[in-house]
Amino acid sequence: MLLVGVDVGGTFTDGVVYDGDSHRLQYAKAPSTPDDPTQGVLDVLEGLVPDIKDIDRLVHGLTIGTNAILEGKGADVWILTTRGFRDVLEIARTNRPILYDIKSLKPEALVPRTRTFEINERMLFDGSVRDAFDPIEARAIVEKLVAKNANSVAICFLHSYANPAHEQLAEKLVRELLPTAFVCSSAAVLSQFREYERFNTTALNAYIGPIMSDYLENLRDRLGKKGYKQPIFVMASNGGISNLDLVKQLPVTTVLSGPAGGVAAAVELGERVNIRNLITCDMGGTSTDVCLIEDLETPVTHEQFIGNYANRTPQIEINAVGAGGGSIAWLDAGDILMVGPQSAGADPGPACYGFGGSSPTVTDANLVLNRLSPDTTLGGKITMDKDLAIAGMRLILERLPSLDEYSLADGIIQIAVARMVSAIKEISISRGFDPRDFTLVAYGGAGPMHATFIADELEIPRVLIPLGPGNFAAFGSLISDNRRDYSLTRKICPRDSSIADIRSTFTELEARGRKEFEDYGVGLDQTTTRRWAGMRYLGQSWELEVPISESIDSIEAIEEVFYQAHERRFGHKTTDITEIVNFRIAIIAGGDKPDLLPWMNDSSVTTEKQPLRSVYFDDKFINIPVYQRDELLAMAETTGPAVIEENGSTTIIPPSWRFRMLKFGELLLEKLDS
């Protein structure tokens, strides 16, 4: 049995394969190919398996849709909407981007009103029809889209979450007249109330739909030509995996595909080493993604934004910051040193790569300080040149004559670390969590290199470095379960209802989900279901999502769950009347999982003399040992300073830290008592 996970990042495409016969993992990296991302996937697979047709399951994490949104390179979307609601995306919410600036402007709508057409129809909030759908007028409108050669159409009618019949009629008509266009309806993308959020999420889906469909079909075709005949699964934003054909219909569910894989892997790692409170730090070439995991519960939210655009599909609650190995250092107008969010990416890459990059990056800074070795080959192909890294710093050094290349490099790293620390504070301290109660899990190609410096700033006492940190997100996609989330807006006052009514609503959603799983060939023998309710006090405008266990058997118990959630979030609670406005479920179908063997049975301590390297710490160079991770023995331990190198990543251990190897090859770094 060969299980393969692939994750396409901004700089590298990562892959991992699990061999069920040997119970071992193998890793591979290849430079990402932005002009043809499929080629990077094929390059990685070539380095992982001798013959693609031997793969039993392939799971793919990707950033195609995310990049298209952030770079403004999606399709020209056309919207059909209810008459009188042409300006929903333009008006958006009444929130002001800058509170006290009366001249501040809202971000431009994803779809301008010039590409929005109104149709006579109207549903009421309870699903009843006020104005019937006019097929003759609708056909005339759609024929205008035909004349415009529209290739992506979003259908967003008022209150379609309560009754999607009119949207379904319009979708059938559009598919008839525009058979090659990408078409989606808001009820299918997000079946819940709040028109702006539902419309905008649907517009996002249509915006990236053509690009994602073309990419996924091209991937399937090229893999098929090489002999791969099994289904292709895609990592979704909710931490599960989804069938490729479903993702083609709902590509907006993958905007956090890559980072979600890392979080899923971190939860599995926490289970394995019995550490239940984690803060993940995934530092790649372009950005760093952080997530807080309490008691190994993956935090899923419906309140995220991608760029300036609301996306209300379920996503792991990840905070991203533009600080990665390829983040560019620059001076602002006041000669203040800045790092990111601009990135050198895969092309041209950091200056040290020699591919034409001329600006210094975080990777260049680490090379100058000898934390990275010029002998290291990145992705199996890229060598680094220290002279080029120093040359990239000259323009900044000319404007800051008080610095030399070493103090500048150290400053670049400190600024990058400060940005990552700030991102972690937003998901911990700002929400009432003390980061000192958590273990930092650092991965990505650059995460282990900066982890202890981040931990020092936050006073986090332990850092966990997984096996194969540079390919950890790919491993996460490999071990993830099939998962699909469903939502339904239905207002119920629990005190005026019964527990049977609430259970029947959840059962209705579950039946829909199970049918969809069967339609896509997913077995239901290992299926589990999780339930949540969007609840609020009567009269409130916004709800809290609370878990509803199947064992809850009374209205009072449901309300008590909400009261506790409200007190934790806002610091107070009452026993006032509540209402449920949304029902949500997640159906999860387990699949084959790796059964890893222990790293080694020998529990010796590393005592052999190691080669030394002069590395910059605390304003000076000191000679420290350099270890190869694959040569360390299980349970080996020693104190810093030290460098641990492996294929795809480097771990830096400062003088005030120690490390030890755990049973399955994980590195546990611990702060020494001062």
What does this structure look like?
With 674 residues, the protein is α+β, with helices and mostly antiparallel strands. Among the domains are: 111 residues, ATPase, nucleotide binding domain (Nucleotidyltransferase, domain 5, 2-Layer Sandwich), CATH 3.30.420.40; 129 residues, no CATH class; 108 residues, 2-Layer Sandwich (Dna Ligase, domain 1); 54 residues, no CATH class. It is built from 17 helices and 36 strands. Strands 19-14-13-24-25-36-35-32 form an 8-stranded mixed beta sheet, with helices on both faces. The chain has a 6-stranded mixed beta sheet with strand order 3-2-1-4-11-12. It has a 4-stranded parallel beta sheet with strand order 6-5-9-10, sandwiched between helices. Helix 9 crosses helix 15 and helix 10 packs across helix 11. The two termini are 49 Å apart. About 1% of the residues have low confidence.
Core attributes:
674 residues; alpha+beta; Nucleotidyltransferase, domain 5; Dna Ligase, domain 1; 6-stranded mixed β-sheet
